[in-house]
Design a protein that fits this description.
Elements: E1 2-3, E2 6-8, E3 14-18, E4 21-26, E5 29-32, E6 35-38, E7 44-52, E8 55-64, E9 67-76, H1 80-111, E10 116-119, E11 125-129, E12 132-135, E13 143-144, E14 150-154, E15 157-161, E16 169-172, H2 181-194
Helix pairs in contact: 1-2
């Protein structure tokens, strides 16, 4: 199947052209221009979509150590179907081949006394450590893991819930590893419930 700037093959390969650059995905490898990322090795991901009735824009970021790259593409009304399909496939690939592993690695680091960052790089950020979560801003209070009920992704944001009608913490999805936070929260909340002091 081919649709202008978006092409797909029966073997699961995907190609998107935008702004003179090409993103190509096959198996667990995504190439953005001349940068090649094996999803089993990336340590940071970012993605974000904004859709309106007759236009949509998408952005995907991958990083491994100091090497990082972002790729964005827009779609006009006549390209929306192809763009949506390309985006769906890209997100499914990144989620299955990278996000679960990154979340486990970050949760292990947090439980061992480290700190993990979700967001940032010009976007709001949430920091996590073994005690809980906090906004990355002056004098922000920490939310202990025992008070966290869950986390989700909605309307371009990652949200952390502690009860009540509004989320307790919010960060933009476009920042590095923000999309991984709900998985990390799930792991840490389970650990908190299973810890000896909560029985």
């Amino acid at each position: 199947m081919a649709a202008g700037r978006f092409s797909f093959t029966g073997s699961g390969e995907l190609r998107v052209c935008s702004g003179g650059r090409t993103l190509a995905a096959a198996g667990d490898v995504i190439a953005i221009g001349d940068r090649v990322f094996r999803l089993g090795e990336v340590d940071r991901v970012a993605y974000h979509a904004a859709a309106r009735p007759h236009r949509a824009s998408y952005s995907l970021g991958l990083a491994r150590g100091p090497v990082r790259c972002r790729f964005g593409f827009d779609a006009a009304a006549t390209e929306l179907d192809g763009a949506r399909e390309a985006w769906r496939r890209l997100v499914e690939l990144v989620e299955s081949a990278a996000c679960t592993r990154i979340a486990r690695t970050l949760a292990e680091a947090i439980a061992a006394g480290g700190t993990a960052r979700f967001g940032g790089g010009g976007h709001p950020r949430i920091d996590a450590d073994a005690e809980g979560l906090r906004d990355h801003r002056w004098f922000a209070g920490k939310v202990p893991w025992g008070r966290v009920l869950g986390s989700d992704l909605r309307a371009g944001q990652v949200r952390v819930w502690t009860g009540g009608p509004q989320p307790r913490l919010v960060a933009g999805m476009a920042g590095w590893n923000a999309v991984v936070l709900p998985r990390v929260v799930g792991i840490m909340v389970c650990r908190e419930k299973e810890s000896p002091g909560n029985h």
